[in-house]
């Protein structure tokens, strides 16, 4: 039950609606029992008396109880569903607030399909918490206890039979099937997560599967996952139906015992026969309401697992955001013996890196693929926390800075840049909501996209743009940001060399006094950089100005020779 603690607290926030739902649920249950009781009493009374006054009064009571039951049931549904929808809203907000500080590092731990299944499916499953888990046992217990006290006035033995029936149908049978459901539900959730993950990957990789003629094999795999999930669902459905049948049988058995014991007491003269039909009808009425408890085990286990899966996603420790302010002048960057290892990896991505990037300097970080260049950039962005060592920007430790305020002072272009469905204008306004059309058109012209209209359509993820156009549009967004610290990760890797040089020229002219950190595998045009850093296997193996490094004929010189031999 500890997994559902957060969901319970969010539900109890709406204590007014929850209390009203329970109150009206109790009234509906009691009115239903009273309706059946008065019906039984009326049948017996009509057989024993000819006084029309009593029969008319009892008939009026039947109508009153029927109307009260209907109105109470409506009010119960109204308040319980309103509380549920509000709880779901609060749950989504709470989950997002916990999830957002973990992004994008969360994608290193979970596959996108599995994460989507948790965010959508598991949150939706928790809508049943109030309606199927928390609420029914409370209402049924109150209705049963009230009815048992009423019944004990006529016969303590019958009241005890109803009490035993209550314990069996509300506690014992659901507990047994909850234990059985726990074993099945784990398999169902695992199968659903596998299916969701594979389906997402199938859609993402459809084009590549088509090109490499692996579509049929992937379809077969997906069909196998679907069949496995369907089989697990069938088992779950069978278990749920079995629980309903057993609970209904126990409820019917309890009513049968009420009838049998009542008939015995009437024969022995210990119970007035006038009340026998009434007591039997009461038992039928209250045991008829135990149907929600038959599905309680399935919903309880489903909610418990859903809450546990959501907690698992957001249970990672989050580094507390600092509140230090960055100075308004140009920012310098210092790293001292910084190391980082990705989760569940043995090899360090960054190991013992120390460097200083002076304000207004232009630094290129080069090296082979997998050398740690992009990881170093994510450390500077405070997306990944360093395992050891210190990083400071503008004289302030990175850990003491609020990430939001830090990113506001940066112009960032990553290897993978997301573009939203909309227009060129809407995607540029992400960087600067106050930008005018003239400023946006000027930014497009600086990255050689002057032919683009601001109203040009952009498909989801920029699918209608080429790789080079995406990179240039991302640079245009960074230009509109207008800050003095540039962090660029392979910004022109998909652009031809002539266009790339023109873009760099525009950036350096615009930001003469800005600080540039450029990660690049292209070694051409680095003569204008103040400092070149060569990385290999997570370490800095060489650093210095271009001319000095060429004279040393070290790692950078060898990389240049390899590049010349390839493009000669």
How is the secondary structure organized here?
Elements: H1 5-12, H2 15-48, H3 52-99, H4 112-125, H5 128-152, H6 156-204, H7 206-211, H8 215-267, H9 276-288, H10 291-294, H11 296-314, E1 333-340, E2 350-357, E3 362-366, H12 373-380, E4 388-393, E5 396-397, H13 403-408, E6 410-413, E7 422-423, H14 424-428, H15 437-446, E8 457-458, H16 467-481, E9 485-489, H17 497-510, E10 515-519, E11 531-536, E12 539-544, H18 546-552, H19 555-567
Parallel strand pairs: 3-10, 3-11, 6-9, 9-10
Antiparallel strand pairs: 1-2, 1-4, 4-5, 7-8, 11-12
Helix pairs in contact: 2-3, 2-5, 2-9, 3-5, 4-6, 4-11, 5-6, 5-11, 6-8, 6-11, 8-9, 15-16
Characterization of the model:
With 568 residues, the protein is an alpha/beta fold. The chain folds into 2 domains: 227 residues, ABC transporter type 1, transmembrane domain (ABC transporter transmembrane region fold); 235 residues, Rossmann fold. It is 62% helix and 10% strand. It is built from 19 helices and 12 strands. A 6-stranded mixed beta sheet has the order 6-9-10-3-11-12, with helices on both faces. Strand 9, helix 17 and strand 10 form a beta-alpha-beta unit. Helix 2 runs parallel beside helix 5 and helix 4 runs antiparallel to helix 6. It is a multi-pass membrane protein. One of its GO terms (cellular component) is plasma membrane. It comes from Planococcus glaciei.
């Amino acid at each position: 039950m500890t997994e559902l603690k957060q969901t319970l607290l969010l539900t109890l926030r709406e204590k007014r609606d929850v209390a009203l739902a329970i109150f009206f649920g109790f009234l509906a249950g009691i009115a239903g029992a009273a309706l059946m009781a008065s019906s039984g009493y009326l049948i017996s009374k009509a057989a024993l008396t000819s006084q029309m006054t009593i029969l008319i009064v009892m008939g009026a009571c039947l109508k009153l109880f029927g109307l009260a039951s209907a109105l109470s049931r409506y009010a119960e549904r109204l308040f319980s569903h309103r509380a549920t929808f509000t709880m779901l809203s609060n749950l989504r907000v709470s989950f997002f607030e916990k999830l957002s500080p973990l992004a994008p590092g969360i994608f290193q731990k979970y596959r996108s399909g599995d994460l989507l299944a948790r965010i959508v499916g598991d949150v939706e499953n928790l809508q049943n918490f109030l309606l199927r888990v928390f609420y029914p046992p409370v209402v049924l217990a109150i209705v049963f206890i009230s009815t048992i006290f009423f019944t004990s006035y006529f016969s303590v033995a019958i009241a005890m039979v109803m009490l035993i029936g209550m314990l069996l149908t509300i506690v014992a049978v659901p507990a047994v099937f909850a234990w059985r459901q726990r074993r099945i539900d784990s398999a169902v959730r695992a199968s659903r997560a596998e299916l969701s993950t594979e389906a997402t990957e199938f859609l993402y990789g459809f084009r590549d599967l088509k090109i490499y003629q692996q579509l049929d094999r992937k379809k077969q795999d997906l069909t196998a996952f679907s069949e496995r999930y369907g089989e697990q669902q069938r088992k779950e459905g069978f278990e749920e139906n079995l629980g309903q049948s057993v609970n209904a049988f126990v409820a019917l058995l309890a009513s049968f015992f009420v009838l049998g014991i009542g008939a015995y007491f009437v024969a022995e003269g210990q119970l007035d026969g006038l009340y026998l039909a009434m007591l039997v009808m009461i038992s039928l009425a209250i045991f008829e309401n135990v149907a929600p408890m038959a599905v309680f085990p399935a919903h309880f286990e489903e909610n418990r697992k859903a809450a546990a899966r959501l907690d698992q996603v957001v249970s990672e420790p989050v580094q507390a955001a600092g509140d230090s302010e960055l100075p308004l002048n140009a920012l310098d960057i210092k790293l001292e013996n910084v190391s980082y290892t990705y989760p569940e990896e043995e090899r360090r991505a960054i190991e013992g890196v120390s460097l200083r990037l002076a304000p207004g300097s232009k630094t290129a970080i080069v090296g082979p693929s997998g050398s740690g260049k992009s990881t170093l950039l994510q450390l500077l962005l405070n997306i990944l926390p360093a395992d050891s060592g210190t990083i400071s920007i503008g004289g302030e430790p990175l850990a003491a800075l609020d990430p939001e305020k830090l990113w506001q002072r940066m112009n960032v272009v990553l290897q993978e840049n997301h573009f939203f469905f909309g227009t060129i204008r809407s995607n540029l306004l992400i960087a600067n909501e106050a930008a005018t059309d003239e400023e946006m058109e000027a930014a497009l012209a600086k990255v050689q996209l002057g032919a683009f209209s601001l109203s040009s359509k952009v498909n989801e993820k920029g699918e209608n743009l080429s790789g080079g156009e995406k990179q240039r549009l991302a640079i245009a967004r960074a230009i509109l940001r207008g800050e003095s610290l540039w962090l660029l990760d392979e910004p022109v890797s998909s652009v031809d060399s002539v266009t790339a040089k023109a873009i760099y020229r525009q950036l350096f002219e615009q930001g003469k006094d800005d600080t540039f950190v450029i990660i690049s595998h292209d070694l051409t045009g680095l003569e204008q950089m103040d400092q070149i850093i060569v990385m290999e296997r997570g370490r800095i193996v060489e650093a210095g100005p271009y001319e000095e490094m060429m004279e040393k004929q070290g790692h950078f010189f060898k990389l240049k020779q390899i590049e010349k031999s390839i493009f000669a």
